[in-house]
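Lab notebook: predicted structure, single chain.

Context: the supervisor wants predicted structures on file for every construct in the current expression panel, including those that have not yet been purified. This is the next one on the list. No modifications to the sequence; it matches the entry in the shared construct table.
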Amino acid sequence: MSDTPFLLPSVSAAEALALAQSGEAILIDLRKPPAVARDGRRAKGALIRDPFTFGHDDPLMADERPLIAFCVHGHEVSQFASALLMVHGCDARYVTGGFEALVEAGIETETAK
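Prediction complete. Output recorded below exactly as produced.
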């Protein structure tokens, strides 16, 4: 057994934004509903998934493009989703710094519905 820890692939907010804008990757917003309600914004063009029900049968598992998950800060929620996607053979990453970093990088937002 290796002493080297397994690190999930991550991506900077700027890189995630560039990949999503070019259509090369899909952004997945996994923020918990109360966090979205408090903030009031969504990342325009990101697919929305409820982190409490995101699971093995999601149609995203069949997409060939890289899947880039984000939550509020880029910690447990998006990292767990990335690991789940990787278990299914997906090219998955999470955004370091989460939604907050994406906003700082200039992602276009819209009012959350």
